[in-house]
Every structure is written in C-alpha cells, then in structure tokens.
Amino acid sequence: MADVAVHADHSADHQAHQGSTGLSNNKLAMWLFLGSECLLFGGLISTYMLYRGRVKDGPHPHQIYDIPFTSVSSFVLLMSSLTMVLAVTAAQRHDDRRTNLWLTVTAVLGATFVGGQIYEFTAFYREGLGFTTSLFSSSFYTLTGFHGVHVSVGIIMLLVTVGVIKKNRVVGNKAESVELVGLYWHFVDIVWIVIFTLVYLIPS
Amino acid sequence: MAIIERPETTPAVPGGPSVPATVTPASSLGALKRPVTTTGWKSWLFTVDHKKIGIIYGVIGMFFLVVGGVEALLIRLQLASAEGKVLNASVYNQMFTMHGTTMVFLFSMPMANAFANYFLPLQLGARDVAFPRMNALAVWLTLTGGIILNLAWFLGGAADGGWFMYAPNSGPIFSPSNGVDFWVIGLQIAGIGSLIGSINLIVTVLNMRAPGLSLMKMPVFSWMMLVVQFLLVFSLPVITVALTLLMFQRGFGATFFDVAQGADPLLWQHLFWIFGHPEVYILVLPAFGIISEVLPTFSRKPLFGYPFVVFSGAAIGLVGFGVWAHHMFASGLGPVSVAVFSIATMAIAIPTGVKIFNWTLTMWGGKIWFATPMKFAIGLVVLFTFGGLSGVTHSVAPSDTQQTDTYYIVAHFHYVLFGGMVFGLFSGLYYWWPKVFGKRLNERLGSWNFWLMFIGMNMTFGPMHILGLQGQPRRMYQWTENRAGEGFFDLGFWNMIASVGSFVLAIGILFFFINMVWTTKKEPKSSLDPWDARTLEWITSNPPKEHNFDRIPTVSHLDEFFHRKYQEDHATESMTPIKTAEEILAEEEANADAHIHLPSPSYWPLVLAVGIGVLGLGVIYGVPTMIIGGSIVLVAIFGWVLEPSVAEDFDYEGTSHDDGPSKELTTHG
Fold first, then answer.
1. Residue B309 and residue B176: Cα distance in Å, rounded?
2. Which of B500, B526, B552 lies at the terminal end of a domain, its last residue?
3. More exposed terminus of chain B, fewer Cβ within 10 Å: N or C?
C-alpha cells in the first residue's frame, strides 16, 4: 500500500513542480543560472574589448586570425543547435532512440568545434602567440578558453544524458532533463555568436 | 521535491500512541548507505533540511564574527597609541585585509543566509526550499571557502592587499606570499556557494509560495531576501571574472594587471566594484527586511506603506548596479563619469530615505514595546540614518576626493554596515530565537548586550569621522606623535577613544554569547507566540516540526497570522482577539496532511564541497592535488545525479509495507 501511495504522490508532486510562475523549478533555476552566465561572459568580453589592441610584442589579432577556418567551425557549432532542437522534440515525443541519436550528433558537432579550437590555439601558439605574450593574447585565450570549457562541459552533459537514458536511470522528467541540457547548449551557442562577431569579425 | 512515506508500525494498543518503526539504512548505489538518521552529528553533516542548514549558516557566521572581531581588536590595539608595537607592518596588512574579508564574506553573508534559509520557507508556507541538496552544497561551499581563506594564516601568511585587493598591489611583485592565492580560491569557492544558494532561494520564492500568497502579500523580509538573491545572481559572476583574471595572472603569468605590458589596473577596480557595490546592498537589505518585521510587531501596528517599502527595496537593488564608480572618484574617471555616478548615488538615497520614513511612521502612534529586538531595530534606524548621511557626503565628488582612503570612509561604512546590518541581524536573532530554539533570550542580558554595543559602536566609529576629516589615512599601520595635532583635533585622543570603544563593543557582543548560554540553561520554554507576531512562520510550533506545516496554509492577507488571531471591526476600527496561537496550531495539527513530502539526507553535497575545496587548493599546490580534488568532484557529481532525491525503500530496513501510510512523520535514529 505504501507503494501505491508513493506512486500517487509522484504524480501529485509532478504537478506541484509547475510552481507559481508556470515554470518548473529546474527550468527556472536553469534560466537564472544562464542569466548569471551572461554577466560572466559580459565581464570576459569587456576585458577582451579593452585589451584587444594592446600588443607590445607578438602578433596582432589581424595577423593571425583565420576567418574562413573559424567561420566553418562556428557554422558547425550553430548546426549543433539545430540537432539539439531535434533531440528535445524527440524527447518530448518519448522517442528514446531518436533522442539519443540527436544528442550524440550534437555532441559530435560540439566536439568538432572544440577540436577546431584546439587546432586554432596550437596554430596561434606556433605563430608566437603564447598565453603570456601580450594583453591581447591573455584576454583572447581566457575568453575563448572559457567558452571552450563551457562547450566541453556541454558535451559531457550530452554524453551523460545519452548514457543515463540508455541505462534508464533518469531521475525525474526525461523530456525536461533533455530540454535543460538544450537550454544550456543554446546559450553556449548564442554566446559564441557574440564572441565570433566581436572578437573575429570586427577589426580592432 | 521528494517524498517520504516512512512506514510505521501499528500501535501496540489500538488507539494508543503509534511507535515509530526502527529504521536502519541499507545500501544505496551498492557502495554507500543512504544517510537517513535525523539525530546526532550525521543528521547535521548530511542534512538537507532548510532549518538545520539555516542553523549551520548561523554557527559559521557567529564563528567568523568572533574571528573577524579579534582581528578588529588587534587593529585597534595597534592604533591605540602612537607608534604601536602590537603588530608589524606586514601582519597589520594581513589583519585589516582579513578583517574586511571575514566580516563581509564569512560573517554577514552566512548570517543573512541563516535567516533566509530558516525563515523563507516558513514565511512562504513551504516545506523546504526548491533544491534541498543544492542548499546543503551551498552551505558547505561557504564553509570550505572560509576555511581556505583562513588556512593562509598558517601556510605562509594571509592576503594583504585590502579587502578590495586593488591591482597592481595584488600582483606577485607586491604580494609575493601565497596569501592572495588563498584569498582568490577561497572567495571563488564561497562565491559558487552563494550563487547556488541564491538561485535556489529565488526559485523557492517565485515557485513555492503557499496558495493565496501573492507576491504583494509576502512579508517584507521575504521580499528583501528575494531582491538580495537577484543582486547575488547578477553580481557574483563579475567578481568571478575578476578573481579568475587575478588567478591567471598570479598562477599562470597572464598580464591582465601588469602595467609594464600596458595593462589598465582600473579594470580590476571596475570589475570589483560592479560586484562590490551591489554587495553593499546584499549585506544591508536582509537587515532592512528583518526590522520591517520587528518594527510593526513591537509597535502593534501594520507596517506603514508596505508597497513603498517593498518597491523602494527593489529600487535600491536596481540602482545599486549603477553606482559602482563612486568608489573610484579619486581615480580620474573624467568629468562625465563622475557626474553620472555622483547623481546616481544621490538618487539611491531617495528609496533609502523612503524606508527610514516608513519605519518611523510605523512606530508613530504605536504602542511600542521596548523589548530587545525592538531596541536593536530602533538602533538600526538611528545609526543607519547617520551612516546614510555621511554616505550622501561621499556622493558629492569634490568632497569625496578629500575623504577617499581616510578614516572618514571607515566611519561611514561601519555606521551603515555595523549600525545597519549587524544591528538588524541581532534584532533578528532576538526576535526569532524563540521560534528556532523554543526559548526567549534573557531580556536583562539582552539589554546589556544592546546598550554596550550601541555605546561601543558610537565610541569606536564616531571619532573616526574626526580622524578622517583631519586626514588620518585608512590602513596606516602606525601614527606618530608629531602628526597628532592638538586640542579637539588631537588624533591621539580620538584614536584612544576609538580603541576603548572597540572593547566596549566586544564586551557587548560577549553578552550575546553569555545570554545564549544562560538562556539555554536557565530560561523556561517560551510561549508559542511570545511577541504577538504577524507573519506565517509563527503558525508553526516552536521550534517548527521537521516538515514545518502540518497543513499547507492558505493565505488571504498580508500579515496572515495576525488576521487569524484578530478580527477587524471596520466600524469602530478596533481589533478583537478571536483565537490564540495555541488554538490556531491545534487546528492545523487536527487537519494535518495525510502525505508529507520531505527530501532525504544525502552525502553528496558534503563530498562535492570537499572535492571542490581540494581542487581549489590544487591551483596553489599543483597538479597532483588538483587530480585528487577533480576525482572527488567527479564521483560526487555522478553520485548526486544518479541518486534519487528520496531514499529508496531499501534504505530502510525492518519495515513492513502492509500498514497504511501514516499521518505522522516518523523520527528515528
């Protein structure tokens, strides 16, 4: 009988999750976290904007940026938002197979972007742009590195979600868990649009 | 949220008191047993109960009040006479840095969190916060940060750049010890804790209010805490950036604040104060919330102009993000910036003034009961007004350039923070003590506590106005006789008064601790509603049950509890008592909910906090430490994610499932 009570309560509890705002607790918390992240990247982007022209020695931004290459990797990252949307809709249809497929594709696209960033960093380093070379280099690596870490954390979240769905050990609402990962992933993409524009496209 | 349906054995005698089943934890996740005890030290370490977490925050806060207080006394001993010999210059630098850091981050913020954690769910009619395990993580991260900050004392010297750690003073050249590294890591970790805590509390307030409790029926304390959490969510990431830049500079040779490379040290000042000014309101708004509960209760009147108090609090929070550069008037920002920030700073005095008027008018014509909570609340109104006025003199930029980095600044912010915040916190401690511990703190000792603190505070910080206007710089480790001046402006005299005052103040605070012990040992149990209070938390028992409310209350009024106790007669404008607190509680107990949902305790918040601490130390002590910390963090995160928020049935042994679900929550252990 206790079991019955527990199940009955699960459904009641689930409704209670849709709180006074109409959002679930988890989603509201994720939105707040992303709001906070905006300020984090705001601070890092401001630092970069202040320092991008300050090169005492070492290469200047326009000497080393490979715009076509970064455009391609940016495109790959933006496409991963599309596959993420497909994963979320599949999860809402309770289609585990497609959810896992699209989550994996998203992770692969994300990994491609991170791979591109590692290649780019290596190339820049060979051209003489170390982390400590100039104010420009310190702030460039910090900003894009922070973003790269965010993408990497996202990839881990995607892969863990796939694993947890496969083992059927999702705690709570499955579709919502996927959606939360999706919110984070889209945020990381949007931040990249800002970074790509301000860092690479607008000449200093 | 979680569900606990703890089975209970059938009563031995039908109709007799039911005996809780003895439950012992069985294995969870194969390796670790899920902690399910509700008493003993384990129940504190692994708790996710917002009330226990609130008390842990309080203990952390009071401990660091003593630490920061001793640091303050040493500073005052050093400055009591000319050419003080108590501390050398280097230790003095560490002392004032750690005094500021400790009081801001390790005393005030945890104390505000103690009240927020304990009373927000109670005022909102909720059984816990939105994310109980994250709540536990937040408190343990705060403690981890505090420990790391203070570890530096024993590992080569504490941070010595002042609590705002201006660049390039904080760089490896001017601050070669590891102190600043510990400072950066400690604050970073405490900051993560605060961020998690604030997200949790915002979700709690926005999503978990009892039926009928609209935002504009919410007690002012809840409102102010909500504003504070928003300030935290949007200001903490900025200091995170600043600390990260500093960490990369000190640890990995980045050039962010290296002037030789063409860096701009003002970058640090901007980033720090974009966080730092909202931080000031993060510190003081909780106290405003507390006295907005205390003043109406002890004046026997509703709060005058509730919406004004709420919206001016929100306005203070909003404008608080646009005034940071008034900390930097002396740095040569240029006339436009100075004018803009000067005017914004003057503007923020308006909502603050509105609050002062509202509090005064709340007392006006009320039947004032001068109990200790009320004394502290009135003390706040008086002292904060004083500090606010000297604050307005800072907003006038030409005057501020004279005052920058003098003791006048020290006087100002101690009036607003000590007179404002600390008095508010003590008011809250006296007001809510019976709710938390079931006993009223002794009034006589409370009176000593208040008057010694009030006199000591004015003796200590009052003369600093004179010292500052005479040009005594802050952070100067010695002063000399030949610079002391004469007559009324004799710096020696006023420094001595301030030092004596600081000991009076310390004795005042000592009386609080004496009172705490005395009350625990000698005082009788308090009545259910000792102050004739107004808000929802007083509907619960003293101290509240583990599940807070037997029945989730339905709210129809601002000051709901008061309206349940008294009937308002509009014709004669009088109130007649209709129910006592005891009757209301009995009614709630009689109509208790059949199923009560509570989250189960968990190991993972504590494990994760320890892991993050070790990971942080790895930044200082190298990659092996980092790998150990990282592994703990990884294990903890996976354990956390895969753990159901409710203990599984197999965590409880020796239970039978054929009894009906019980009405009471069983306690065991």
1. 48
2. B526
3. C
Predicted-complex ipTM score: 0.89
Q: Flag whether A138 is in a domain.
A: yes
Of B3, B235, B261, the CB nearest to A13: B3
Count: domains in chain A: 1
Q: Which residues make Cβ contacts (< 8 Å) with residue B6, sequence separation at least 6?
A: B20, B21, B23, B652, B655, B662, B665, B666, B668
- The residue type found at B116 is A
C-alpha distances in Å from residue B353, one per residue of B312, B316, B381: 9, 11, 11
* CA torsion through residues A45, B348, B216, B301, sign: positive
In whole angstroms, how far apart are CA B598 and each of B49, B112, B210, B249, B335? 8, 24, 16, 46, 57
A contacts of B271 (beta carbons < 8 Å)? 43, 47
- The verdict on a CB contact (< 8 Å) between B256 and A134 is no
Does residue B640 have a pLDDT over 90? no
- Mean pLDDT score, B128-155: 94
Q: Does the pLDDT of residue B354 top 80, yes or no? A: yes
Q: What residue in B sits closest to A132 (Cα-Cα)? A: B254
Give me B633's structure tokens: 């963090």
**Same domain flag for B40 and B175:** no
Residue B81 scores a pLDDT above 50: yes
Cα of A43 to nearest chain B Cα, Å: 6
User: Choosing among A4, A7, A9, which should be mutated to test the B contact, i.e. which has the most B CBs within 10 A?
Assistant: A9
| A28, A48, A150, A152: best to mutate for the B interface, most B CBs within 10 A | A28
Q: Which of A43, A132, A164 faces B237 most closely, judged by CB atoms?
A: A43
Same-domain pairing of B310 and B453: yes
What is the CATH number for A110?
A: 1.20.120.80
Taking CA atoms, B4 is separated from B18, B79, B131, B596, in Å, by: 18, 58, 16, 7
